[in-house]
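Z., the sequence and structure:
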Amino acid sequence: MIQFRIQPDSEIPASTQLFNQIRFAIASRQYPPAYKLPSTRALAMQTGLHRNTISKVYRQLEEDGFVESLAGSGIYVRAQGHEGGSKLQSPTLKQHPDAYKIVQQALDELLSQGCSLSEARELFLAEMDWRLRCSAQVLVAVPSYDIGAGELMVYELEKALHIPIQLVPMEELTTVLDKTSSATVVTSRYFIGDVEEIAAPKAVRVIPLDIYDYSKELNLLKTLPKENCVGIVSLSSGIARAAEVILHGLRGDELLVMTTQPKDAYKLQAIVKRAEVIISDQASYAAVQAAVQAASEDIIRPPKLIKVDNYIGTKSINLLKRELGLG
């Protein structure tokens, strides 16, 4: 069972701390679709929060589309985006709502047995036309306040898929979709509810991406001596904020945590001079190395640099390749 911890003296409200931790558990697949969330009683005993506060958090999660409540059963993680079924609205699919899922399963089976896409297209022309059209335009959508998360996704997807990826602020997604006849929109599970709401009227496929769970890095941080300083450098301001909450849950006040984005030279320089360990995403790593090199004369002992393997989970990359007919 995941341990959620609340920092009582934080400026962040306790309900927001719990909300963000549960969102991370869902986004990193520690809580996969159909997973039953702990009861309010169990979470109250674990976190010390009032059950009414936990119920409020669960209601907010449900309103944002992360979970669904089943009367008499409990709260469950909701299947999102393409996991929940097709967004196509053709007459045939309206008459046979389960047909698309059957076609998908059959196509995946053919591909796993060595059937080429060209051969499969002869059998499933409509499905293959849809996949090929959508792969012509792949959009990454994130809110403007965390555009760095989108930049990080684009960075990794272009390296993995070898196709152009367009970054679109969520606030501009409707305008962009109005100008295209077909596209695939991808986003982090953090933002899937808002993106689905925008894309659904456009009959556009939305695929949620799982984020990496950082288990390797978290295991390392559990062993750091007390009073060490840890630097977190990421394009995504959201990841930096989540890291602070999670590290405090792991170590309380034992570690000093400093965070920044690579473009903030002043904060990055401060981290380089103060931290014993710096954890960085791939896209920020070169900037961190350069900052360490530039400050080498002022540093007695250079910090240990850790480059996170990826931001997007490997399974999500493979799923996207399959959905786009790229692998």
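Residues 215-307 form a domain with the Rossmann fold fold (CATH 3.40.50.980). The beta strands are 67-70, 74-77, 138-142, 165-169, 184-188, 205-209, 229-233, 256-260, 277-280, 304-307.

Let me know what you think.
H.
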